[in-house]
Description:
This protein is α+β, with helices and mostly antiparallel strands. The protein has one domain: Aminopeptidase (3-Layer(aba) Sandwich), CATH 3.40.630. Helix content is 16%, strand content 28%. It has helices spanning 28-38, 126-140, 154-159; strands spanning 4-7, 17-23, 59-65, 71-79, 110-117, 145-150, 163-164, 169-171, 175-182. Strand 5 (110-117), helix 2 (126-140) and strand 6 (145-150) form a beta-alpha-beta unit. The longest helix has 15 residues, at 126-140. The chain is globular and about 40 Å long. It starts with a strand and ends in a 12-residue tail after the last strand.
Amino acid sequence: MNDxxxxxxxxxxxxxxxxxxxxxxxxxxxxxLRHEQLRVGMPRGSERYPGVDDDPRTRFLLALDARTxxxxxxxxxxxxxxxxxxxxxxxxxxxxAGMKVHPLRFPLLFRLRAMAVAAGHQNRGIGSTxxxxxxxxxxxDESGLWCNARLRAVPMYERCGFRCVTEVYELPGIGPHRxxxxxxxxxxxxxxxx
Length: 194
């Protein structure tokens, strides 16, 4: 995956030129941004996801200021814990080799997590730009996405086509969230699928 340059839409209050960069390497700047935005008041180290950040299937998407190359946003595309068989197939009930797939996530291969935008760059469309690139990559991989969305981020995810599949719940020490999914007809919806 390579850099994708973009200028955010004219409808934004403040336009920001950014470059999107995919990587499989975690940097200190990435960890710092996660901590500053997602783990306020929590100890250093809480911004790390053991078993995810070091998983070779995990991909990181960075939003860089196109003029300064400074990190202004980030997101993690985690491989779901229920991978498809080598040929891409699953049993009709969503199981793979006797393993049940979480009904809210079937058949999504990727979890979006640890998305953050630097304080001075929020509300400029950078988060939406990150999400749309994650959607583009998930589509290329014939999948959708799911995430645990903070309540304040739910409207942005909805504008990007995600839908809520749970009621509000509390993540201890972090705050209220809802699970959301994106992926068109391939996404499980508990009210319409059995």
